[in-house]
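Students often ask why inverse folding is considered easier than folding. One informal answer: many sequences map to the same fold, so there is more than one right answer. In these notes we will look at a single instance of the problem. The structure comes first.
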């Protein structure tokens, strides 16, 4: 027999039901600044770390969902340039591996820079930035292009004023960093967070070598890989999984425009002509190649290493094999190497919606 429920108990139960009905689903994002930033975890395959180069994740700028999304907006934000015509993405185009199809970068006024915009991929491991290594981290790197007279040609006070007046941004800075007062330090922190999420580990090579898909690479591509790792000596500076060694090296190239490379940063003549080793991931789409964009095809790059390496006083030791004639590549070898390099393309990375323009 049912017991009679007291009116006060009914009132309590009814209040609880109504309160629960008004509560957000816990799976929904909480749209309040007080919720605080949500930690963001990079999705890296087990073989994505080589055990030599550690992740570069600064303690004063931890990855958060809110910070990454804000950084994505800022990476594609044209208000960073003087005339609202350029963003970071103008010179770092996603379908080109976050590089650009021009030998050197252009400024908003059409002026030419000296160097090619490097590809942005797997930056979470990088210890130095720019071709000459002058920035120690992504945050320091992001300061430069905004004020560079041959890039975005702006001033940081102007950028901050524009973002502060844009109704889309103060609340997003509040969610990401706990303040709606925008400054340049927070801008570059957000951009750096986004750039650290640009991970590429889904090429045909990855599926063949790391995941055991025997059909992912054909016989020519496999021959090219064996050459790459052995006779052609490419592995010395471009070892997997990253396909570069994060170093700066003089590879014996003719200086075409007076660019002294790392020497301009350190003042050390031994650093003349040293430039950062680029990654070969997505190399098929990141043309033109080298620090000054002098080569437009992979065939030209392979021919340079096989035939045209010079011997300056500070030539990198890894290049001695080439100037001593120890690396001999037949036409078939060269074709096989190029075929292999194209297996490093990651179509999913080039089309990932979370990297594209959110505006």
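Output (designed amino acids):
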């Amino acid at each position: 027999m049912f017991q009679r429920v007291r009116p006060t108990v009914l009132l309590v139960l009814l209040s609880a039901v109504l309160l629960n009905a008004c509560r957000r689903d816990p799976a929904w994002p909480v749209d309040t600044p007080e919720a605080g930033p949500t930690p963001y975890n990079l999705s890296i395959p087990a073989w994505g770390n080589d055990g030599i180069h550690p992740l570069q994740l600064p303690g004063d700028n931890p990855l958060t969902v809110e910070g990454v999304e804000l950084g994505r907006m800022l990476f594609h934000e044209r208000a960073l340039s003087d005339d609202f015509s350029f963003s970071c993405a103008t010179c770092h185009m996603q379908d080109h591996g976050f590089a650009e199809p021009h030998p050197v970068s252009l400024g908003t006024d059409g002026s030419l820079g000296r160097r090619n915009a490097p590809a942005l991929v797997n930056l979470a491991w990088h210890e130095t930035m720019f071709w000459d290594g002058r920035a120690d981290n992504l945050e320091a790197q992001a300061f430069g292009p905004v004020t560079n007279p041959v890039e975005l040609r702006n001033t940081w006070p102007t950028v901050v004023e524009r973002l502060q007046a844009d109704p889309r941004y103060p609340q997003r800075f509040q969610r990401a960093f706990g303040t709606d007062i925008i400054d340049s330090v927070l801008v570059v922190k957000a951009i750096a967070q986004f750039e650290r999420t640009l991970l590429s580990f889904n090429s045909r090579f990855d599926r063949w070598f790391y995941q055991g898909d025997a059909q992912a690479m054909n016989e020519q591509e496999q021959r090219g890989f064996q050459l790459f790792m052995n006779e052609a000596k490419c592995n010395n500076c471009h070892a997997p999984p990253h396909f570069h060694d994060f170093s700066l090296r003089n590879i014996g190239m003719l200086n075409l425009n007076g660019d002294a490379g790392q020497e301009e940063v350190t003042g050390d003549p031994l650093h003349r002509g040293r430039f950062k080793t680029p990654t070969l991931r997505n190399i098929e789409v990141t043309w033109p190649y080298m620090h000054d964009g002098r080569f437009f095809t992979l065939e030209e790059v392979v021919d340079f290493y096989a035939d045209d390496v010079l011997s300056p006083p500070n030539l990198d030791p890894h290049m001695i094999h080439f100037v001593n004639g120890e690396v001999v590549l037949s036409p078939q070898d060269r074709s096989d190497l190029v075929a292999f390099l194209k297996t490093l393309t990651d179509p999913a990375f080039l089309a990932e919606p979370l990297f594209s323009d959110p505006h």
